[in-house]
Design a protein that fits this description.
Length: about 475
């Protein structure tokens, strides 16, 4: 069939920037249809949470990688910007497309916009087909015995685990049918996704965005770290986790592909522990749970799920917030994490919990300020996961850490960075200190500090708060809202 006689379909790429295991693409390519792969940059349509700086950098690289991969199949990516509905209408008219295919998004504002677009396009006489390209379970598929959304992870995941489908993911198409003439496309550079200041050197050094990079990272994880995941996932000083989060966020890899690869990679050297697979799988489960919660409780992006926290006596303090953002709190594990974040766009999960806890409990700064900073600086910034992470830490979300359990940044450092390698890497000012003082340099005698070249209060700060006092203050603040809600 010649391309002029074929059915023409717009494949609207959003957060599914891959070609393999792509249900929308697979369905669109049936019957040799002509495909017009399209990306539309409409940052204002996601609500208040416009893509942050690190996320935009990643998006640029990922779109470039997708365009290259499409060109290998005889196709290309059409890039547009502006109102998504108008651009889709224009594109459909220009290309005489009969159908539009996309993968569903679940964030409240995006989902609402998509419903409107779907309705309007149908009224225009276009076919619209949407698919699940991102999750193992769509948020509405799982409910408790009363038909209500879950608010406790273990019960949610137990239910999911019973229904987990394990099927071989589809491969990428070998060729894509191109239209006789391509519609107009703007240059990727015109979207200005990359920051003008060169802060991204560390991002470039640490990551390979795109489907190929995601696949390579998965293989590396399966080879090197999965076997030890249960033991090492809490250690920021080793490569104990998958680092797949930014790839998952933009859909460069699907959770189904990860599951399948894990099943295909049986114990290669006899050391595989079932506990590690279970533990890793349940982290993917937290991602599912985060989407479930955000779908059912859309207000949680900036309001606490547990109402009593609306009256929490937070203390917004820009100077303390700035010290936290810059990694200058005087608590080495917190500072190491915040500097890792600034340099690489990523922070280890254990350190995210410690650094976030320090902000909301030691400094009493509202969790929303932390969520905003993470949103702008994380390459994996994800509305569902970030909201869950912050509400969990602040104690105001579903299945959250109890408020009174307050992380001690010194003992957390000693426990999870026992050789001090992580702190020494990111806080080089403390590199020469003996291990026993690295996580609490203020405890070192003057002579030890002098010998290590550490000048507290000068090149490395004194602690900006006393943890023991801060802990008491936080507990007293919590008592206030507890009393009010009784
Ligand atoms: P792995 O341990 O290899 O886990 C595999 C995958 O499971 C991850 O890639 C991620 O998709 C998912 N996952 C793991 N832990 C969690 C979790 N606690 N919640 C939800 N999904 C999880 N994750 C994000 O992807 N984006 C965010 O914006 C984000 N913000 C966070 C903010 C705070 C305050 C906290 C405490 C956690 C946040 N997380 C976020 C969750 C978690 O820290 C990261 O997903 C994880 O560190 C990514 O590293 P990894 O891919 O090596 O994880």
């Amino acid at each position: 069939m010649s391309s002029s006689a074929s059915r023409r379909t717009i494949l609207w790429f959003r957060r599914d920037l891959r070609l393999a295991d792509h249900p929308a693409l697979l369905a669109a390519t049936q019957n040799d249809a002509v495909i017009i792969p399209t990306f539309i940059w409409s940052p204002d349509e996601g609500g208040a949470w416009k893509p942050g700086a690190a996320g935009k950098w990643w998006l640029h690289q990922s779109l470039a990688a997708l365009d290259n991969a499409l060109r290998d199949l005889g196709s290309r990516l059409i890039v547009r910007r502006g109102n998504a509905l108008e651009e889709l209408r224009r594109l459909a008219a220009e290309t005489k497309a009969q159908a539009i295919y996309w993968s569903r998004q679940y964030e409240p504002t995006a989902a609402k916009r998509d419903s409107k677009i779907e309705k309007e396009l149908r009224e225009d006489g276009l076919e619209v087909h949407t698919f699940n390209g991102a999750l193992l379970f769509e948020p509405w598929e799982i409910a408790n015995a009363e038909g209500e959304p879950y608010q406790v992870f273990t019960a949610y995941w137990r239910n999911c685990s019973k229904q987990l489908r394990r099927q071989a993911p589809s491969g990428a198409p070998r060729k894509l049918q191109a239209p006789g003439r391509w519609p107009e496309s703007v240059e990727l550079e015109a979207l200005q996704l990359e920051p003008s200041v060169d802060w991204v050197g560390g991002l470039r050094e640490n990551w390979t965005p795109g489907e190929g990079g995601a696949r390579a990272q998965l293989e590396r994880f399966l080879d090197r770290s999965l076997g030890h995941y249960a033991d090492q996932r809490n250690r920021p000083d080793v490569e104990g986790t998958s680092r797949l989060s930014p790839h998952l966020h933009l859909g460069e890899i699907s959770p189904g592909q990860i599951l399948h690869a894990m099943d295909q990679n049986p114990d290669s050297d006899g050391r595989e522990m079932p506990a590690s697979r279970r533990s890793f799988l349940s982290e993917l489960g937290w991602r599912e749970f985060a989407h479930h919660l955000l779908h059912h409780f859309p207000h949680t992006v900036d309001q606490p799920l547990r109402d009593q926290f609306a009256a929490f006596p937070w203390k917004d303090d820009s100077k303390l917030l700035r010290a936290w953002q810059k990694g200058r709190t005087g608590y080495p594990i917190v500072d190491a994490g915040m500097r890792e974040l600034w340099t690489t766009g990523w922070m280890h999960n254990r350190v995210r919990m410690v650094a976030a806890s320090f902000l909301v409990k030691d400094l009493l700064i509202p969790w929303q300020r932390g969520a905003e900073w993470f949103w702008d600086t994380l390459v994996d910034a994800d509305l569902a996961n970030n909201t869950l992470g912050w509400q969990w830490t602040a104690g105001c979300g579903a299945d959250a850490a109890p408020y009174f359990r307050i992380f001690n940044p010194v003992s957390q450092g000693q426990k999870f960075d026992p050789l001090c390698d992580y702190v020494r890497k990111w806080v080089p000012e403390l590199r020469e200190l003996p291990d026993r003082y690295v996580h609490a340099p203020w405890e070192a005698p003057d002579s030890v500090l002098a010998e290590a070249g550490v000048k507290l209060g000068q090149q490395y700060p004194e602690p900006i708060v006393d943890h023991a006092e801060a802990r008491n203050r936080a507990l007293a603040a919590y008592e206030k809202i507890k009393k009010k809600s009784q």
